[in-house]
Specification:
single chain, alpha+beta, two-stranded antiparallel sheet, 1 helix, 4 strands, 32% helix
Length: 60
């Protein structure tokens, strides 16, 4: 149950982020992203992004 709530939270949060900053892009080649391997998770160690500096002001 908690896992589904986290997935929903992340989906909504990322959608809001990309709605607000539509020109947000990955700041490096996806093949070069360093990964951390944990007992419970595999996740990026960092995720640099780039954008043109112009937020979408029409989004609430």
């Amino acid at each position: 149950m908690q896992e589904n709530a986290l997935q929903l939270f992340l989906r909504v949060a990322y959608q809001a982020l990309f709605d607000r900053f539509p020109s947000l892009i990955l700041g490096m080649n996806e093949r070069d992203i360093p990964w951390e391997y944990d007992v419970a998770f595999i996740r990026p160690a960092g995720l640099p992004v780039a954008w043109d500096g112009k937020p979408n002001t029409s989004v609430g």
